Amino acid sequence: MHLTNEVLRIEDLAKVFRSGASDLVLFENLSFSVRQGEMLAIVGESGAGKSTLLHILGTLDRPSRGDVYFAQTQLSALSESAAADFRNREIGFVWQFHYLLPEFSALENVSMPLLVRGQSKAEAEGEAWQWLREVGLEKRGHHRAGELSGGEQQRAALARALITRPKFLLADEPTGDLDSRTAEMVFQLISRLHRDFQLSSLIATHNYAFARRCHRVLRLEGGRIEEVLPETLVG
C-alpha cells in the first residue's frame, strides 16, 4: 500500500506529572507521524503512557511540552470549545470499555454524536441504522446496552465512533476485554472499516498478533518511542 500524505504529526511531545516535590516524566521527546490511510499500532507495557498519548492526540488532554498537528492545525492552539468541535468532526474514539449509556438502546447510543451536533432525531437515527447494519447489529438496535454481549457492545461503540465520518480513528485496547474469538472478529471489523472508509487509525494494543497486521508498529517504553518491525513482535 502506498501511503503519502501526512495526516498527524507529533513533535517533541512530553507529558510530565507533578508528584510531591518532584516531577514524574511519563514520556518525552516523542516525535512521529501518521500518514493518510495508515493503520499504526502502539505497543508497550501497562503504565507506559499509551492511553495518555491517545488522550493528547484526541485533544482530551494537553501535553506538558511539544506540539501535535492534525494536517495544518496545531491542536495545542485550540480553545476548549474549538477542541471539542475538532473531536466531534475529525476524531473517532474506541476504548477498552465501550462507555455505552446503559439506559439507552444501541440505536440511541449510536445516534448520540449526531444529536450533539444538532441533527434531528430522524436524521440521526437514519444514519445510526446504517452504521448498525455496517457492524452487523441491525437486529439488535432496540436492545439496551446491557442486553448486548461484550462483542456487540464494542461493535456498537465502533459504530458510534464512526457515525460522524471522522478522518482519524483512535482505539485504546479495543479488544482488551474480549475473549480471543470475539477479539479477532472485532479486529477484523476495525480493519475492514479502516479500509472501506479510508480512515487513518492509531491503535494501542497489547495484542502482538493484531499489531503485526498493522502497517507500522511503534513501541512506547521507558518514556521513549521507537519504530519496530511488525514481524519482530513475539508474544
Give your account of this protein's structure.
The protein is of the alpha/beta class and 235 residues long. It has a single domain (6-229), classed as 3-Layer(aba) Sandwich (Rossmann fold), CATH 3.40.50.300. It has seven helices and ten strands. It has helices spanning 50-57, 80-90, 106-117, 121-134, 150-162, 180-196, 208-211, and strands at residues 6-19, 22-35, 39-43, 65-70, 73-74, 91-94, 168-172, 200-204, 216-221, 224-228. It has a six-stranded mixed beta sheet with strand order 6-7-8-3-9-10. A four-stranded antiparallel beta sheet has the order 2-1-4-5, covered by helices on one side. Helix 3 (106-117) packs across helix 4 (121-134) and helix 5 (150-162) runs parallel beside helix 6 (180-196). It is globular and about 50 Å long.
